[in-house]
Amino acid sequence: MNKKTYQPLVVLLCLCISVKLFLLQNQSLKAVSTTGNNSPQIVKSGSKKQKIIALTFDDGPHPTYTPQILDLLQENNAKATFFVLGMYAQRYPDIIKRQAKEGHEIGNHTFSHIDVNNVSKEKVVDEFLTTQEIITSLTGIKPKVFRPPYGLYNTKVMDIAIESKCSIILWSTFQDSKDWSNPGVDQIVNTTFSELENGDIILFHDYVYKEESHTVEALKTILPELKKKGYQFVTISELLELSEN
What we know:
Shape: globular
Number of helices: 9
CATH topology: TIM Barrel
CATH superfamily: Glycoside hydrolase/deacetylase
Number of domains: 1
Largest sheet: 5 strands, parallel
Radius of gyration: 20 Å
CATH class: Alpha Beta
Order of helices and strands: HEEHEHHEHEHEHEHEH
Number of strands: 8
CATH architecture: Alpha-Beta Barrel
């Protein structure tokens, strides 16, 4: 290969690398297409340009831990998104009403935490719609965000998201605290801050099947530290709106 042929190839290669890096740096909303023109929005993070964080809590409400978490959020002037199970929302309606009253967003997490890969589409639809109805009846607000249990999604989940005009919300790559297993307060704190980025969606759980919740104790460190670092706490819908601008 002579020098004249080599130089344009180098320029082309550099251009391709630059374009790829630009796309990676600016990719904030992760979408997956389905057949046809419509596709659900599948989100793992928000805009990297702004110092915003979305705290999310799954599987609640819990009669003890969720009110404690709400107290901590209130103390730190922080808003969050709670992905609730219909069966617990039905059992603890006053907690759901408090979440809505205090400005938090409430999302759908199915009725009983099903594995969407091992049930029929009819079951997914029933669990989703039942939970939508419960949350709407308690708050007057129809959820616009859906987090399928275990973060699993397939055509059944995507179809219901399209039909209900909901976004499917996952979490950022390094922000699964695994707090449901009570790994220790320090571990939860370290997981949160070790790879923290603007626009992260952080996964916590307010319903923990343990005698105590390490999440509650970890938040006593995490919330003030995030504030100190200059992060603004936003709900998922706010994150999506800010990321579109």
